[in-house]
Amino acid sequence: MAETGDRIELRSGSLRLLIELAPLRLSLGNEAEGLHLRGARPRLKLGEQSLFADRASVVEPEASGKLKLRADLDPGLELELEIALASDPPALELGLRVSNRGTRAIEINALDSLFCDPADGGELELPGRELRMLQMGFHSGTPARSTRLSDQTRAARGGETAGPRTPAGTRESLTSDVATQVSAPSGPVLAFGFVSHRNWFTHVSLRHHGRIARGLRARTVFESASVLEPGADLHAERFWITLLPSRSDGIAHWASRAAETMLARAMESEEVLGLEVAGPIESLGPLLDQDVRVATLRAAAQLPLSKHTLTGLKTWATAARARGIRPALCFAPFLLPERSELADRHPDWFLSDDGGGLIRLQHRGEPQLVLDPGKPRVQGWLRDLATSLKRAGIYTLELERLDACTLPGRRGPEQAPALEAYRR
Question: What is the pTM of this model?
Fold first, then answer.
């Protein structure tokens, strides 16, 4: 780490991070590849008001490549930015926290871990005349696809690629709630994505003008304004970004990092948020009393294919449609409770560690086993599940924790790489 006045420089391989403390701005560059992101900074959204850090100070230099900064904001808010520069591959990871040090509650709508916009003095420099944006679906609303920035189709504007809680793009903005990489054919790669999925909804907006990328915003959104009481903290999801040489697989590097963070918090719990119900089929009635167009039932994880469950879902779906509401089901297709009939009958369908023990992932407060979708029998079982749900009248599925496939583990005799299993 090199520090000169209000400027700090960190390096990792070909990646250079310049931190300006007054005002707080970050510039990330790979000079060998001509890739640069300049003048970016964290931002808080309070309704229509944007708050930035005019001056930050170093709280404590941590291990090599790690730094923690702190800044005071009005009204009575304190911002803390954790910066980590990794080496394999060289990448920047940001953890943003805001604390209420005042005496009154404050409503916060969103936290931008990284905000780079030409109108705010930011600049994104990506070489190449035909940039393409490749998305790998963390969420079922954003399946893997490649989009040219110059396309003006509905999909390119974000209408089809954005997830159900991600705002649609515009003619000069593409949105993604997943891991994404941007590059020209045979050109250097900009890759980014969130590597934690605790409670909140996230998306990244890429601003562009025709074929030229211009800005980037990584946002953690609160479904409704989150009330931050005095003395309380609020964390954004962790954001990861890297600048890589041509033909690099940035999605694979993101998948590896996301898997590490999931394992690190395997014993933590998660929250159920929004207009959703977790519980027995009999508790679904109140969901239809809301003034909504879509009613989403969020299951704890995978669903048992029992006659009782499917009959209850069919009754609920029929009642929803009778009221003009589209029924939807949200669940994690690759996670299954460890105490389940399927796990007892087919332990070989699940990921295991080198010692043969089944890998467990905490999801919505319960330990879950992870199905290996690379196995043909697992694929067949999932197809049967989809068919049964369709017969029950559930045509809209919101699939979550698809990135569980990236967890390291033994994947049967073929030993398919984690990213290959993820793409299957």
Answer: 0.66
